[in-house]
């Protein structure tokens, strides 16, 4: 099989405040450092310009949103062009007054906006009140074509759904990307915390296996308090990682430290893996109609 080696980087950071410009600048600095080490593609964590504000329902947080294209895509594009690197970033999109999305954007290495994906699965759980802020995506599960390949970009809660990964793969995605903000409730015991983290890693490795393509998942790290004081806050568990097409871990970041994780992905291996594990060939599409049901009563 012909090798296609792509050097990738994941930027895992802790966030201390809602200084949007300072946080973006820190991410851009990390992109430059990764590019200086040969990275051709850089993935940033979910909502990297601010604290994870969805722990409470607060209309003031809508001030953090911005248009796409807008200030962040302009700066991201400039650095992508300067460093000749593809950037996958995550923004709080203001589409119109009263209409907001959790949106991932892809900047091509010539600086242009190659495409965007609006998060489809929106959680509404203690500490993760995203339905208050985000309208579900309406762009479908459509990969974004770039100079380094066809990217299947998804966001955080999407990572728990095999349907999303499969639909991206069926549309020709060569890799899956998950900018993420996930962590523990510090009040949970250690055993429960470990189960949650291992489940998170396992389900994404399974997407790589079931579709025969690499997966890149970038999480934030550090503790962020609940502004309302009602909850225990979130201890983000880091652990950003890259897998190959058989779910093998190629690189993994620490749990509690910031990191610029750099590794190589051989995109040519997907061809070899799919030849010996031809899941797409053996799918029983004639008998899957019930997947469109909410539940089989």
Automatic annotation (TrEMBL):
GO molecular function: acyltransferase activity; N-carbamoylputrescine amidase activity
GO biological process terms on file: putrescine biosynthetic process from arginine
Domain CN hydrolase: 6-267
Domain of life: Bacteria
UniProt KW keywords: Acyltransferase, Hydrolase, Transferase
Record PROSITE patterns: CN_HYDROLASE (PS50263)
Pfam families xrefs: CN_hydrolase (PF00795)
InterPro entries: Aliph_Amidase/BUP, C-N_Hydrolase, C-N_Hydrolase_sf
PANTHER family: BETA-UREIDOPROPIONASE, NITRILASE C965.09-RELATED
Name of the protein this chain belongs to: Acyltransferase
Native source organism of the sequence: Candidatus Tenderia electrophaga
